[in-house]
Structures are given as structure tokens and as C-alpha cells.
Design brief:
With 180 residues, the chain is α+β, with helices and mostly antiparallel strands. 38% of the residues lie in helices and 16% in strands. It contains four helices and eight strands; from the N terminus they run αββββαββββαα. The chain has helices at residues 7-16, 56-72, 132-155, 161-177, and strands at 28-31, 37-40, 42-45, 48-51, 107-108, 111-112, 118-121, 124-127. It has a two-stranded antiparallel ribbon. The chain has a two-stranded antiparallel ribbon with strand order 3-4. Helix 3 (132-155) runs antiparallel to helix 4 (161-177). The radius of gyration is 21 Å and the shape is extended.
Length: 180
């Protein structure tokens, strides 16, 4: 397709949808309600991918798989936007003295992937602790930055209440949920 063609986004999403197919492991088990669990190899949204692995050997397999997929499909990995994060043996946090990933030398397309303490994925900052407060804090800050400039408008008695409500619903939730 030509540069800027609206169809290119749709075609890319269909194309990248196969990134996690045929992994040597099934994914990471996510507990669900009831006795079941859901196995997820990764998350995809537009041109962003987040790979999940239950162990260091599986993570190496994931890196090899992504490298092979990228090579086969003549794609380049944006290594500057990549990072490895460990959540620890019990699933939360991890002692930096016992990090399994430290010095493991995992690469994508021959380029080492850096270790990170936090990672921004689709506007959500994921931290090693996975604490809800750490995930909510940037969203709360974004909400305040959105509402404070609107204060004079929202306090104005000349603006109908229904109009103020429409502005709040149209501006604040999108910025808190999706925007930086």
C-alpha cells in the first residue's frame, strides 16, 4: 500500500496477529474466576507487542521466536522501546540481589534487550511491584492536569450544567484512561 493509506493499519494488525503463534511454550497462566486459568503468550495492540514468559528458558525461546518471526517477515524490532522486567518467583516484585534476568544477555535480532524497572505500555506504567497505587498514580496526575485548567469553565454559573457535564465526560475520562 502507499504511504499514509488508511488500509495499512488494518493490514498491519492482521499481519502482526500471528506474532505469538507456534510458541514452544503455551504462555503465562492467568487466574480466572472459578477453577480455570487462561494461558496468555502476550498482548498485541496496533504496533505494540508485550511478550510474557513463565521462566527464563521460556523467555529465551520467546526472544528467539520473535527474532525468527521478524527475520522471516522482514520486520525490524524497535529495540529502543523494548525492555525486560522480572516480577519475581512469587509473581510480585523481586529482590534485586536475586534477579534471574540480571546478566542473562537476552537479545532480539542480535541486539541486547535492556532490563527495566518500569515499562510504559499503552499509557499504563507497569512496575515490578504490580501495586495498584503505582498503576493509578500517573492516571490520577493526568486527571488533575486535565480538570484544573477546566475549573473556571466548570464553575461558571453562565454555562448550563448539562454542557459542563458533557465537557467533563468528553474530556476527563479519555485523558485518565488513555492519554498521557
Amino acid at each position: 500500500v502507499r504511504q499514509g493509506c488508511p488500509l495499512s493499519c488494518v493490514l498491519f494488525n492482521i499481519f502482526i496477529n500471528y506474532l505469538f503463534d507456534n510458541l514452544p511454550y503455551g504462555g503465562v497462566d492467568i487466574p480466572c474466576s472459578g477453577p480455570r486459568s487462561l494461558s496468555i503468550p502476550g498482548l498485541l495492540f496496533a504496533n505494540d507487542a508485550l511478550g510474557l514468559a513463565p521462566s527464563l528458558p521460556a523467555l529465551g525461546e520467546l526472544c528467539d521466536h520473535i527474532t525468527a518471526w521478524s527475520t522471516k517477515n522482514e520486520m525490524q524490532v524497535g529495540i529502543s522501546k523494548c525492555g525486560l522486567m522480572e516480577f519475581g518467583a512469587n509473581g510480585y516484585g523481586g529482590d534485586s540481589d536475586t534477579d534471574v534476568l540480571t546478566g542473562c544477555g537476552l537479545c532480539l535480532s542480535g541486539i541486547p534487550v535492556p532490563m527495566v524497572e518500569e515499562y510504559l505500555y499503552l499509557g499504563v506504567t507497569v512496575t515490578r511491584s504490580l501495586l495498584t497505587a503505582a498503576l493509578i498514580k500517573p492516571r490520577l496526575k493526568s486527571g488533575r492536569k486535565t480538570v484544573y485548567p477546566l475549573s473556571p469553565f466548570l464553575r461558571s454559573p453562565g454555562v448550563p450544567l448539562s454542557s459542563r457535564l458533557h465537557v467533563i465526560l468528553g474530556v476527563v475520562p479519555p485523558r485518565c484512561l488513555y492519554g498521557p
